[in-house]
Amino acid sequence: MEFFIGPPVATEQVRKTTHYLEVITPVQGAGSVVYYINEVHDDTWAACACWGRSGLAFDMIFSVVEHPEKAPKIAAGLRDSYPSLFLAYDNAMSEQYGAGALAQFIDPDDMNRKWFVASMFRAHDVASFDEKMPAAANRAILLSCQISMEFETAAAETQEVTRVAAQANGITAGDVRAAVGALTRGLDWLDILMNQ
Fold first, then answer.
1. Reduced to 3 states, what is the DSSP secondary structure of residue 134?
2. pLDDT in 10s for each residue of the chain, 196 residues
3. C-alpha–C-alpha distance, residues 61 and 169, integer Å
């Protein structure tokens, strides 16, 4: 199962496997979106946007939320920085899966645990499936896009704070790029902050 944002495609593609239905839909000027439909239980389906290995950031964020004493300043600002992520988290905790919620599934392709934003729906026949599936897929994709934008905004804000602090301490932009590159490749910034 692939990350929900994919490369450009000319037309919608649908692939059926033994475990799920994969739909790749072109987005004009922006590549494609990929979502999955799988039956969770009798007549209960999930439209899912896969976060793949990117979802590991969720593990770290929720670790801070569950153990705020490790990083109190970070924990206090997480809900403000990622409101859509916490909407999906709260929906999962309150079992509101139809509204779009975080879920973890084992990817049958590689047998690895992955995070998804999923919207569940009930469909007892083809007509009800065709009626409800598009709205569920739209909820999962839209919520995933909102979460993705929040991550991009937080990354940009972190980069700007780092730049200003570096300039104040006489560090050049090149020094900052080299340090950020090294940290990005080898270390996890949240883990570093939590262990200080």
1. helix
2. 888 888 888 899 999 988 898 999 888 877 888 999 998 888 899 999 998 876 677 787 888 878 878 777 777 788 888 889 889 999 999 999 999 999 888 888 889 888 899 999 988 889 988 899 999 999 998 999 888 888 888 776 655 544 554 555 454 555 445 544 444 444 344 444 444 4
3. 29
Statement: the pTM of the whole predicted model exceeds 0.85: no
The structure tokens listed for 103 are 């879920």
User: What is the DSSP annotation of 45-59?
Assistant: EEEEEEEEGGGHHHH
CA distance 184 to 129: 43
Angle (CA) 143-184-103 rounded to 5° is 30
Task: Tell me how far apart the alpha carbons of residues 133 and 92 are, in angstroms, rounded to a whole number.
Answer: 19
**Side chain identity, residue 121:** F
Q: Are 194 and 71 in contact (CB under 8 A)?
A: yes
How far is the CA of 178 from the CAs of 56, 116, 152, 190, in angstroms?
24, 33, 20, 19
